[in-house]
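Input:
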Amino acid sequence: MGEKLLEVKNLTIGFPEETGMRTVVDDVSFTVGYGEIVGIVGESGSGKSMTVQTIMGLKNRDAHILSGEILFNGKDLLKMSDEELSKIQGNDMSMVFQEPMTSLNPVKKIGWQVAESLKIHTSMPDDEIHGRVVEILANVGLPKPEELCQKYPHQLSGGMRQRVMIAMAMICWPKLLIADEPTTALDVTVQAQILQLLRKIHMEANTSILFISHDLNVVKEVCQKVIVMYQGKIVERGYTEEVLYHPKHDYTKHLIASIPRNKEDIREDELVMQAKDLNVYYSVKERGMFGKKENKHVLQNVNFHIRRGEILGLVGESGCGKSTLAKCIVGLNKNYTGTLDIREEHPQLVFQDPYSSLNPMKKIGWILEEPLKVHGMKDKAKRKELVSQMLTQVGLDPSYADRYPNELSGGQRQRISIGGALILNSKFIVADEPVSALDVTVQSQVLNLLLDLHRTHQLTYLFISHDLNIVRHFCNRVIVMYLGEIVEEAEVEEIYEDPKHPYTQLLFHSILTDERKLQKITDVEQSREDASANGCPFYHRCMSRSDVCREKRPERINLNPEGQDPHWVKCFKYQS
Amino acid sequence: MKYMLKKITTLIITLLLVSVVTFVAFSVIPGDPALAKLGTYATPERVEALREEMGLNKSLPERYVDWLSGAVRGDFGESYQYAGTPVSELINQRLQVTAILAVMAFIIILVISIPMGIVSARKEGTWIDVFINLFTQVTMAIPAFFLGMILTYFFGLTFKFFQPGKFVMPQENLGSCIRYLIFPAIAIAIPKIAMVVKFLRNSVLSEVKKDYVRTAYSKGNRTKKVLYIHVFQNALIPVITFIAMVAAEILAGSIVVEQVFSVTGMGRLLVTAISNRDYPIVQAVVLYITVIVIIINFIVDILYQFVDPRVRTE
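Output:
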């Protein structure tokens, strides 16, 4: 340690524009020592990705390096010819990208793709290369590496593809590994596994890692040193603990404080919604002339309720049926059996993606007026007045009514989505990942807006999220879903302190807050086929399963029968 | 295997539908084939007798079944014009000519447009790219028959590479037949080359922006390798569909070009048959062409499996 592997000196990068050069990376200097893990934190547009892509020799053709040097092992990468550079790329220095779904070549076999770097940089015979590939695939925790070599990327899950990416980056045992948001696109449980894997690699090979992320919790978990970037500049740097617990720069303080305020408990006893034995189906048509219509059973025997004024969190991995439940509640999916009793007119949905959920051809005013028109409000002046009131309520100037969605930032658009949900005076809002597409600091603003509206309008929320830190601060009660079933349901404090279901335990131990907890996670890759028809859906991943779990589905039981707040769990462990 | 089976069933159904459409279309065209065959001065009795003989008094479905069972065996009846000559015989001779012409045009298209498209994409924005763009803009606008006239004038009349109008059937001398057909093939190919070049260029350029290309560079690949090893196969996937469409258009193009170069192929047969109201021939040629187009599409579907593993392993 200590010896410099990578040294970036006064790096300045700009894009030529009509008005002159727009600087995106401004006088950035930092070093990465041998065996060090350095994190770069910042929001989108902070210049962090541009910086590392330039180091890797992958920068955009239009970007101009205005000044500075990048010394790798003492040699300036910027002065090298393409040929010299390509001898370092993939060999001494390699990169893992954010999007595991698109970063692999879809038409090449996994084995070939992992082997490619070795073929480029060494003259090893083919059988030896194959041996190394199989070895490294096993090393990054992928089962059946021999078979895997013959597979194509689309046959793998996101987590598996990211492991393949890491294997690919590590095959030549590089001195420096650049990881650009390697876990952002993944589920929480998978995220924890990938971080664990990166640390294992660091320990075993003493590889230096340059780790880019927007997520402070992740950076805290893996990095020894951290650099905070804001608008192209480094605003703060130092040891991770030091920076996170004693931030000096205003932006860092802002970033660290970006955890939403705590909610208030305004719950009443009256129920707003109750689902009894809800089974939801989804019809999919097979492709081609003879494609059959298939009714997929997405949600199984779902029972839950929401009290007036409550904020109920719904958590689970992607594909577990969260969004299907949301659509079912607001009436977009009528293909269900069981009872769904909603005592509030027009429950409204706030969507995840603020970029595609607003019609780009219509003005904001028109978008907000539309629900009023649909519900028969003929008075134009009245509609306009309601729209400008609503804009004020969601924290925007009434003049925004004349703008188009593309003139607004992501956070502002999400405010419009919230306004659209509230304009019919609905008291019950289903929010499907409302902040996950936003930057951290914007997230907290939107969440605080939701909390303000909750208090002033006495709203009820069903809040769907995969971010367990947000759910903890935001919600009163939590339900946990796994493959279409609610496996646990309890008050937020109780479930975070003492998760009962093995899946909930896995999920909550994956939140990166505690070193000891992270060590405990052991998990296998999941797939829907794993769930046997009659047994517990979690059987194949469960650490504490027994024979009965394979044969039968557990019923839900209340672990807190005396207390006021029930704690439901579906697991045989607690049945006696 | 399941994929193949599905595709073959779809193919058979499509072929049946096409045969129904072709048959019905010619049955509803006004005019009595018997009358057409005998001429306007024939007595009503003779016409009636011929109608009986030709089976025109039967119901439409019955006639369809008769026609289809003949067609499957390659029997399309007799031509009205060349009385006594079976339609299939007339077609088979000319089909060979058109097939040679189409295959030549197709090869010319592939050999020229694929390298050109790749070069154009690789050298995006340079003078080579600009030049290729200009070339494609111009040639796309030139109709094949006009190009045919120009080629005839220069290569036929001025440089005497071939003798316009002196077409040799392949049965007589295959070598000189092919030599003659080079120029009609070029006339068909040039406008299509332009389209394929443009399409391939855009396909490569959109592939190059994808994430996996960045990954390939990060492994230490040089531009050439990234392009030929990673990008090319992916860029080809949409191009294959497009080339199949082009192949179908070659057949349509040959109809016109055969006229210009006086090539006795299917196109000429079709045009003369139409002007003579020789319906059995027209019907058969139309069916042939549609069947060929459908079969080309079928082959493309099969080819997809080899290029795109996502289709193969679905």
